[in-house]
Design brief:
There is one protein chain. 37% of the residues lie in helices and 22% in strands. It has 320 residues and is α+β, with helices and mostly antiparallel strands. Among the domains are: 113 residues, no CATH class; 45 residues. Helix 10 links the parallel strand 12 and strand 13. Helix 7 runs parallel beside helix 9.
Amino acid sequence: MTGMPCGPKAAFATKSYFANQPNRRGLQLGRVLATYYSEIVVDRLFGGTTQLTTALQPLVQAAEQTLELNDDTRNRTLWRIDAGGGSVAEVNWLLARGYQVHCKDYSGTRAQTLAASVTQWVDDPRLPERQVGWVTLAPTPYNRPVRRIAVRCRKKNGHWGVGVLISTLVPHEVMALTQQPVDRVKEPSAVLLAYVYLYDQRGGGVETAIKGDKQGLGMSKRNKKRFEAQQVVIQLNALAHNTIVWARQWLTPYVPRMRGWGIMRMVRDVFHVSGQIVFDHRQQISQILLNPADPLAKGLAPGLFALLGSEFIAVTLGQI
């Protein structure tokens, strides 16, 4: 979920939390992102006070419709969610539908109780201030077997900040998803840390995508008063986002450094390469001329020709 500030006259706009904007009114955007592909699966608007605890089920159901998920594919679909969607009721709802879950427990009080059952804490070599350990308290309130990992970090006041991860994945699945050697499944500390690192990857997925859309596409700058109209704007943004992701995938073989570029970098550097479009007598594109002075033009020219050659469109470098 992310805040979408807007004018006070917009439909369903209410006072809520918006970073560095006290007393601001707005809506909330719920997003489902296919992390490995960086593609938006679902974008939905909600009222300004809506939180993930109530938005999770509508978002999941919308994703089911978009991806045409059935019983078999649900079992191979992993939901990685932050604490806002980690209540017992929501996790059990996902488990009852056959999904795999890797999320953070919603209750801070319960996390403290569960963390107290850890018998051995393991230092995280990536973050020296963080320790992780297996929760040994049983039974669980979930309707399917889960593994629970306590994570604690030292706060500025010297106290421990504690959270608990909940996962249905087995160790060899986690090792595979974090791209670690399979034989490391025999190392207890490596397996434990792999569960935590898999959850860490969530932050580099949907949060980064939302930030890129706000900076590169101006997602939070275009507001409509009618709720339906604003939802259309959101869907157009999702189309633009996915098109940029596909373009990056198509062009990366020709410009390898583009592989790690985000939405903002693609818009600013790739889509602003200067050039000229030539039309034929039927007003159809016959040639694209790129400015050779642009450092990306040399790599983009063969990439665009590979995409457009079948349409008989020539892509060349030349003075504009």
